[in-house]
Amino acid sequence: LSILTRNQLVPQINPNGRIPAITDGNQRVFESGAILLYLTDKYDTERRFSYAPGTPEYVEELCWLMWQMGGLGPMQGQANHFRVFAQVRSDYGIKRYMDETKRLYSVLESRLQETGAYLAGPKYTIADIASYGWVRSAPNALDIDLSEWPALKKWYETISQREAVQRGVKIPPPKFSEEQFREFMKAAREKIDAKENTDKYVCTYNWGTYKRKT
User: Fold this and answer.
1) CA-CA distance, 46 to 52, in Å (whole number)?
2) CA torsion 26→33→172→104, rounded to 10°?
3) Whether 35 and 81 share a structural domain
4) Which of 136, 143, 139 is nearest to 170 (CA)?
């Protein structure tokens, strides 16, 4: 399956036809946040990667998981689209979503400075798992330097050293080396930069009406 291809899954597994989705016996589960919650609720009985429901830590974990699904994922996903994959160049789209992605990284930075460890508290949880993949892709895909956010960079490096994470990022086996992937993304950004900006107008709000500037 490819994350770039639509409608790969039959509606019985995911009505939206997209990944991620899993089946566990007769139970279907789709959307990354729902999958993480399902797996921890059913299988993480020792609470190695989650907090017990009803505790303040669980609520914090849930908040940061929802924050990723409603904020970091969609916004950085749009940044990836406009900066790397779009067929046309939109300076507005690039700036809008790159700025928002960096703002969200500042939110992560503030939280990690507060906890000194992980998003929900002192323990590594599904809240961290949900955001880690996005942060991991940012330097190569968007040319973002994590050094701008020291606590976030430390968090990223700490998680990257986990043996299970090192195994997980190799599933499925990558088709390119890290350097090849970095060069591929760089070439994609340069291809967009070479195009003419297609933003034809901007809208300004003036006394309750939108005016078009051509």
Assistant:
1) 9
2) 170
3) no
4) 136
Write the CB contacts of 165 (distance below 8 Å, at least 6 apart in sequence): 132, 159
Residue 133 sits in the same domain as residue 160: yes
- What tokens appear for 176 in the block? 């390119």
Q: Yes or no: say if 174 and 182 are a contact pair by the CB < 8 Å rule.
A: no
Instruction: Give the tens place of pLDDT for each residue, 15-61.
Output: 988 889 999 999 999 999 999 999 999 999 999 999 999 999 999 99
**DSSP 8-state assignment for residue 192:** H
Using DSSP, state whether 14 is helix, strand or coil.
coil
Neighbours of 155 (CB within 10 A): 26
**Counting every residue, how long is the chain?**
214
Structurally, how many domains does the chain consist of?
2
In the numeric block, which tokens belong to residue 181?
């992937």
Query: Do 87 and 78 form a contact (C-beta atoms < 8 A)?
Result: no
Q: CA–CA separation, 60 vs 47, rounded Å? A: 15
